[in-house]
TrEMBL record, chain A:
Pfam families, A to Z: SoxD
GO MF entries: sarcosine oxidase activity
Organism domain of life: Bacteria
Coiled coil regions in record: none
One record GO biological process: tetrahydrofolate metabolic process
UniProt-recorded name of the protein: Sarcosine oxidase, delta subunit family
Record organism: Komagataeibacter saccharivorans
Length: 101, 177
């Protein structure tokens, strides 16, 4: 069983959560001013890293809030979770190595 | 509630909970503070905690969410107090009385039975009296509230009640073996 730490409720089973895609995607301030390519880039193009990724998750069967998480895509281990609106934290190499283990 | 099947066993008991009126309040800090004050509390309960007044209980189920439970004879007074207290404060107060049904479970085996429904830790140190949270109970969305060392109140959506009570009975049989 994979435990995910909700920033509000604490550790809960993965089944209570819903993944909501990559985090920190900024919507263009003026959509009419961007080209079709830039708009398509914003809408559809996502990173697919082998390693650490910042994702949005929602505690859908708990408090119902969205939050962000740093996860290693190779091992599914979560490095940390943090509240919406905070910038992507820098992960030191020790924590990254632990998540990749 | 006629949907709730009752069965008394020596170590575990399922009973229909009281008929309550319920409201969910969604709002920022100011909205929650005003709602808690109008309900008669000295402050907003901490996350996943409940607070009680005469004839009512407030449960903090989310950072921006409070659920109020009221006994029917106090409900009208509580509702008008909430409406008056939340006037002019951006927030949303919605009545959800008919959405969910209360089930009271109790007995020495109650933690073991709940452990078969959810992977949460129901030990009294991890889940003290007065704690309440939403979670998945088997396959049904529900709220768990610890009302005493050996008693919990479950709130599940109306259509899940027959499923939930039957599941609790089956699990209670399994736990005894």
């Amino acid at each position: 069983m994979l435990l995910i730490r909700c920033p509000y409720c604490g550790d809960r089973a993965e089944i209570e959560y819903a993944n909501a895609g990559e985090a920190h995607i900024v919507r263009p301030a003026d959509p009419m001013a961007v080209s079709d390519e830039e708009w398509a880039q914003y809408l559809y193009m996502r990173d697919n890293p082998k390693g650490l990724i910042a994702e949005r998750w929602r505690h859908s069967h708990g408090c119902g809030r969205f939050f962000n998480a740093i996860r290693d895509t190779r091992t599914d281990r979560f490095v940390m979770t943090y509240e919406m609106g905070q910038p992507r934290p820098t992960i030191d190499s020790e924590a990254a190595a632990e998540a990749a283990r | 509630m006629s949907d709730v099947m009752t069965a008394s066993q020596a170590r575990f008991d399922v009973a229909a909970g009281p008929d309550l009126r319920r409201w969910v309040l969604q709002g920022r800090d100011a909205g929650l503070a005003a709602g808690a004050a109008a309900f008669g509390l000295s402050g907003v309960p901490d996350m996943l905690r409940t607070a009680q007044v005469a004839g009512g209980t407030a449960a903090r189920l989310g950072p921006h969410e409070l659920v109020f439970f009221a006994e029917p004879d106090r409900a009208d007074a509580i509702y008008s107090a909430l409406q008056a207290g939340l006037k002019d404060i951006p927030s949303s107060l919605v009545e959800i009385s008919d959405r969910q049904v209360a089930i009271d479970i109790s007995g020495p085996d109650v933690e073991l039975v709940l452990s078969s429904l959810s992977p949460m830790d129901f030990n009294i140190r991890a889940f003290p009296v007065g704690m309440a949270t939403r979670t998945l109970l088997a396959k049904a969305d529900g709220m768990v509230w610890r009302t005493g060392p050996q008693s919990f109140r479950l709130e599940v959506w109306r259509s899940f009640v027959p499923y939930m009570t039957e599941y609790l009975q089956k699990v209670a049989c399994d736990v005894r073996f």
